[in-house]
Inverse folding.
């Protein structure tokens, strides 16, 4: 049986940080994040439920990074790199469900969570994006660089990191 990255110590910490990030958004909004089980690979991380309307309103991808906003803005040009294959899979789901696809990026050192609409319900871009090939783990792969300039911002509260 293959061990997934999320089952290794570093992966388990990433999952914990992802939960912390999602809780920050839940604290600030009426949204609830319904994850897909972590023990199997999935095309998306889960569904977004609006508890006021009682309706599933989106799908999401969440990532935690060990760098802060300064590095995101200066080194990475305020862009989040996501593989094109990941986005193609999410786009397919969006086309069939009419659910927008959201990206959640947790910048751990700053306690900052950014949420950006990647695809809207019409399956067109919800944010500015640049597509280009990049050498990744020794293989040239198509990557999307998502602008985070219009992302919604949420903060981690001090006691929130002890929830998990």
């Amino acid at each position: 049986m293959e061990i997934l990255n999320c089952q290794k110590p570093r992966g388990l910490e990433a999952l914990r940080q992802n939960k912390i990030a999602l809780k920050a958004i839940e604290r600030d909004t009426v949204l609830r994040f319904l994850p897909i089980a972590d023990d199997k690979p999935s095309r998306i991380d889960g569904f977004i439920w609006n508890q006021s309307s009682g309706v599933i309103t989106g799908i999401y991808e969440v990532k935690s990074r060990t760098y802060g906003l300064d590095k995101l803005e200066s080194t990475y040009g305020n862009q989040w790199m996501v593989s094109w294959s990941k986005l193609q899979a999410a786009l397919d789901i969006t086309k069939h469900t009419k659910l927008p696809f959201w990206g959640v990026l947790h910048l751990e050192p700053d306690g900052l969570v950014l949420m950006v609409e990647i695809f809207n319900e019409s399956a067109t871009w919800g944010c500015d994006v640049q597509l280009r090939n990049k050498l990744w783990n020794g293989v040239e792969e198509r990557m999307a660089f998502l602008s985070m300039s219009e992302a919604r911002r949420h903060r981690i509260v001090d006691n929130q990191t002890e929830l998990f």
The chain has three helices and nine strands. The chain has one domain: 5-152. The chain has a mean pLDDT of 92. The beta strands are 31-35, 46-50, 55-65, 79-83, 101-107, 112-119, 129-136, 139-147, 152-155.
